[in-house]
Structure formats: structure tokens, C-alpha cells
Amino acid sequence: MKGEKIKIGRQYAVSIISVVLLSSVCFLLKEYIDYQIVALLLLLMVSILSIVYDIIPVTIAAVLSAFILNIFFIDPILHYKINNAENALLFFIYLLMALVSAILTNRIRKQEKKIREKEEKEKTIKLYNTLLNSLSHELRTPISTIIGAIDMLKEHDVLISPDYKSVLLTEMEIASMRLNRQVENLLNMNRLETGNLRLKKDWCDVNELIFLVIQKFPDLKTHQIIFKPEEEFPLFKIDAGLMEQVLYGLVHNAVLYTAPGTIIGIELREDKEHLEIIIWDNGIGFPEDKKEKVFEKFYRLPHSKTGGTGLGLSIAKGFVEAHNGTIFLQNLPQGGAHFTIRIPSEVSYLKNLKNE
Fold it and tell me: Do both 318 and 293 map to the same domain?
């Protein structure tokens, strides 16, 4: 309540001061401009105020401008001139124009605000439905797989061969990892949106970080991941946990949405205390008109294969920007996607620091 009073008080003050300052400047220049020009300038000021302020402060500014115009700019100067029908008509016409301008502009602003709120509400509902639809599939599928495998093992444990039991356990593991990944995505998005993300920076060997990410794809047979470590690469002070999730998400995305046989490459670069990590593939790339949208929350390319909630790239962008870095997407001339991560960071060439 106190904050609202201060806000309203500021509107009154700014409205009155704006009209007085403009009138003062016009009064100093009254030898060069006539009162019709001053009237238009004051009307313009009232219209501008009505765009950003409430109707009552603007109405006061309109009435004040009418009296200032009448007293200081219409001959005889410094004399109240509503002394006949003509002067009264002139005064009230100006006052009416100022009030109408203020009221109409204020109504237009309120209408635009309602339209924006309606659009935001519709967008929120659409995002909610998108998330609900995605989660209903992404969570139900692995849960059903796990429950089905458990029921099979419980009911037919004696009759199941060791090989088939191994298959069931592998399916359960894959489903559990998929379920865990979706839950992590939701938690990470919540951390980004609520501002609860806190970086835990430490010296990191980025070569080891990338090898750790690659090791999370132990049985990958459909794609080839290539990475040549940079032996003389320095240590960078980053949040290794968050960057691991970023790199895993980009590589997993490439595995999920490119054709079998696609090569996925990872490269490292150092540029003036900036860490650059490049992840590329030789697939078909992204539609040129959709490249900027792929980082939006819940966005999925049209005709994408089933799977995913459209959060992965949005989270990757959020984690990189939490490092004050940037991530951008290009299509390679020969085909394929090319993600570049660029992060400012402290650099050290003393390898033994990573063991401290």
C-alpha cells in the first residue's frame, strides 16, 4: 500500500513538473513562438503523460496546462482572460481537447494492457497444455515400461531365461534414465525461472569434462562421437556440473534427432580468456527460419519424432547465460548443425590446481 502511494505521488509530481517545465521553456521563447504552437506542445505533453500515467494525474496536468496557456501566453500576459464568451469558449475548447486526448489515450493504453494480459494468459495456457501433453507421454512411457518389466519379473521369474531377464533389466535401466532426465529438466527449468540457480565455479579440465559426457553414451552404435583433446588446453573456472548437463543435452539432442550413421563432433578453443566449445554434426541441420526458436521453452520443431518436452535447448541456453556466456546455432554449408558455446572465464595453465 505504501509503495502504491509513492507511485501515485510520483505520477502527480512528474505530471505537474513536466507541464511547468515545458511552459517555462515556451515562456522564455514566447517572442519566437505564438500561443497556438504552445497549445499544441502542451497538448502533446498531456498526450505523452496519458500514455504512461493514470487518468487523475493526467487530468490535473491537462487542467493546469489550460490555465497556464490562458494566463501566460494569450494577451494580455499575466492576466486571467475568461471575461467574455469568446475567451471562455477558447479556454474550454482547449481544456476539452486536452481531457479528451488524455482520456482516449488512457483508455487505449488500458485496452492494450488487457489484450496483452489476455495474450499472455492464452500463451501460458498453451505452454501448460504443451507441457502437460509432453509429460503425459514422456513420464507415462518409462513408468509403464518399468511397471511392466517388474510385473513380468515378479509373476514369471522362474520361467524367464537369463537372457530375457537381462533384456528386461536393460529396458528398466533405459526407462529409469529417461524418467530421471525429464524430472531433471523440469527441476532445472524451475531453478532458472525462480532465480534459484547458483553457480559453483571451480577449476575444470574441460578435456576430462567432455570425456565424462561421452562416457554417458557407452552403447551408442548408431552414431559416431569424435573428440580430439587439446593437450595444452588451460583450466577454466566454471560450474562443471552445469556445463556437463549442457554438453550432454546437446550431444543427446544430436543423437536423438539425426539419422543413424551421423557423426557428432566436439571441439575446444580458447580465445582471450573465453572458453569456446563447439558441437557439430553432419546431419540435415535446422530450418533457417526456426533457428532462433529452438531455444524457446517447450518449442519443438514441426514433424519432430516423438520424445522430449522441448526443454533441453532452453535449459542449455539458461545454464550458459548463467555463466555470462552465449550459445548460438548455425547450419554448416555442407549440412548439419553447429552449436557454439562461448563463456568468459578465469584461465590457469597450472594443471596441478585442479587437484587443490
Answer: yes
Q: What are phi and psi of 70, to 5 degrees?
A: -70, -40
State the total domains in the chain. 2
- In whole angstroms, give the CA distance from residue 42 to residue 61: 9
Would the pTM count as exceeding 0.85?
Answer: no
List Cα–Cα distances, 297 to 86, 116, 197, 250, 293, in angstroms.
63, 19, 17, 15, 9
Domain boundary at 165, 196, 227, which? 196
217 and 317 share a domain? yes
Same domain assignment for residues 235 and 345: yes
Residues 6+ positions from 52 with CB-CB distance below 8 Å: 109
- Residue that wins the pLDDT comparison between 306 and 45: 45
Are 249 and 317 in contact, with CB atoms under 8 Å apart?
no
**d(C-alpha 32, C-alpha 27), whole Å:** 10
Closest by CA position to 255, among listed 289, 221, 290, 210: 221
Average pLDDT over residues 219-231: 88
Q: How does pLDDT run across 255-291, given as a tens digit for each residue?
A: 888 889 999 999 999 887 899 999 999 988 888 877 7
